[in-house]
Amino acid sequence: MTINTLTRKAPYKTKTVRKMSIETFLKRYRKGKPGVKYEYNNGIIEKTETMKFKEQYIFQNLQQLFLTTPACKEKGLLVQELEVWTSENQWRKPDISFISASQIESAAKGNEPIPEFVIEVISKNDKINEVKNKVDEYFKAGVKVLWHIFPALKKVEIYKSADKSETFSQDGICSAELVIDGFKITVADIFKK
């Protein structure tokens, strides 16, 4: 039996990834462009979409719950696209984050606290490997609860550790009570328009 040793070049060019320093990244890409945000991952720029205007109802529903839950109001804020250092070489802008009152105070003194509750709204353009790698990254940094909200599927995937998640739909109850007392909402209420 003979083995065919004929080889040929791939019909496409492979792209060489050039790394960039964090200083250059912050100077050139920090502000992003309308509808686009850039994140930094060990020298690599990751381009993603910001939350779309048509998805703002999701933030509004979560913000309304947050502001009407007695234990929440005095404990901090829900904010969009907060700049977060998850490590010395990783800079992210989660779609929604909870920052506690003590973290706000710490940040005012020049510290860079890590939100313990983070929400990413997953669009059709998000790359699955980047999304899953960020799960590990967030939990290594100190996040305690991570929600992936899928508007196209009307589902929410909740992580309370990097290697275990639960997926909820319709009447499923999404909870961040590990971080914020009383903060829970049905999937249907997240997507209520």
Describe this structure in words.
With 193 residues, the chain is of the alpha+beta class. It has a single domain (52-190), classed as tt1808, chain A (Alpha-Beta Complex), CATH 3.90.1570.10. The chain is 26% helix and 31% strand. It is built from six helices and twelve strands. The strands form three sheets. A six-stranded mixed beta sheet has the order 3-6-7-8-9-10. The chain has a four-stranded antiparallel beta sheet with strand order 2-1-5-4, with helices on both faces. The longest helix is centred in the C-terminal third of the chain and has 14 residues, at 128-141. The protein is globular, with a radius of gyration of 19 Å.
Summary, kept brief:
By secondary structure, this protein is an alpha+beta fold.
Task: Outline the fold blueprint.
Blueprint: H1 22-29, E1 36-41, E2 44-49, H2 56-68, H3 70-73, E3 76-80, E4 84-87, E5 90-92, E6 96-100, H4 101-108, E7 117-121, H5 128-141, E8 145-150, E9 155-161, E10 164-169, E11 173-175, E12 184-186, H6 187-190
Parallel strand pairs: 7-8
Antiparallel strand pairs: 1-2, 1-5, 3-6, 4-5, 6-7, 8-9, 9-10, 11-12
Shape descriptor = globular
User: Strand tally, please?
Assistant: 12
Number of domains: 1
Quick check: average pLDDT?
Answer: 91
Round the Cα radius of gyration to an integer and report it: 19 Å
Which sheet architecture does the biggest sheet show? 6 strands, mixed
**Distance between the first and last residues' Cα:** 67 Å
CATH superfamily membership, which one?
Answer: tt1808, chain A
Number of helices: 6
Q: Would you identify the CATH architecture?
A: Alpha-Beta Complex
Top CATH class = Alpha Beta
